[in-house]
């Protein structure tokens, strides 16, 4: 997948999610871990969803998951080939789901299939993640 294959609006990178975005630039998927109750949670947020603490570390995730759901988006001219796939991935660590582009043809997708992260450099400062079928 190349930069020109990705239709998108630039995300607003907040202080809360800055480490997540910096991780993607380094080809790593990061999530937060609460220092108080040790809950690991995704997506990034300002407070722990369990104990409401604002004190957390960042931990690396595996970048693996399973396809929970997907849809084909038709939005010319943003999709150069007429459409693209947007999916929901249950992360392997079972801490949450990620909504992301899927690098696959619709007829090759099955709910529950194993997926793995990939990365697309959009600009010098922005890398996005996509998921594709796992070879394992």
Describe the overall structure.
With 136 residues, the chain is mainly beta. It has one domain (10-133). The protein contains one helix and eight strands. The strands form two sheets. The protein has a five-stranded mixed barrel. A three-stranded antiparallel beta sheet has the order 2-1-3. A hairpin with a 5-residue loop joins strand 5 and strand 6 (97-102). The longest helix has 8 residues, at 18-25. The radius of gyration is 15 Å and the shape is globular.
Give a short synopsis of this structure.
This protein is mostly beta strands and 136 residues long. The chain has one helix at residues 18-25; strands at residues 30-34, 40-41, 56-60, 64-73, 84-91, 97-102, 114-121, 127-133.
Radius of gyration: 15 Å
Tally of strands: 8
Distance between the termini: 20 Å
Strand % is 35-45%
Secondary structure class reads mainly beta
How are the elements arranged and paired?
Elements: H1 18-25, E1 30-34, E2 40-41, E3 56-60, E4 64-73, E5 84-91, E6 97-102, E7 114-121, E8 127-133
Parallel strand pairs: 6-8
Antiparallel strand pairs: 1-2, 1-3, 4-5, 4-7, 5-6, 7-8
What distinguishing features does this structure have?
single chain, 136 residues, mainly beta, 5-stranded mixed barrel, 3-stranded antiparallel beta sheet, 8 strands, 38% strand, globular
């Amino acid at each position: 997948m190349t930069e020109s294959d990705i239709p998108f609006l630039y995300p607003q990178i907040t202080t809360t999610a800055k480490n997540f975005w910096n991780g993607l630039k380094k080809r790593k998927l990061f999530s937060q871990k609460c220092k108080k109750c040790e809950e690991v949670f995704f997506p990034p947020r300002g407070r722990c969803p369990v104990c409401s603490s604002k004190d957390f570390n960042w931990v690396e995730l595996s970048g693996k998951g399973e396809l929970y759901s997907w849809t084909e988006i038709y939005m010319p001219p943003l999709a150069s080939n007429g459409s693209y796939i947007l999916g929901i991935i249950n992360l392997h660590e079972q801490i949450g789901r990620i909504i992301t582009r899927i690098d696959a043809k619709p007829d090759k997708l099955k709910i529950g299939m194993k997926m793995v992260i990939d990365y697309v450099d959009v600009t010098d400062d922005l890398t996005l993640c996509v998921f594709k079928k796992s070879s394992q």
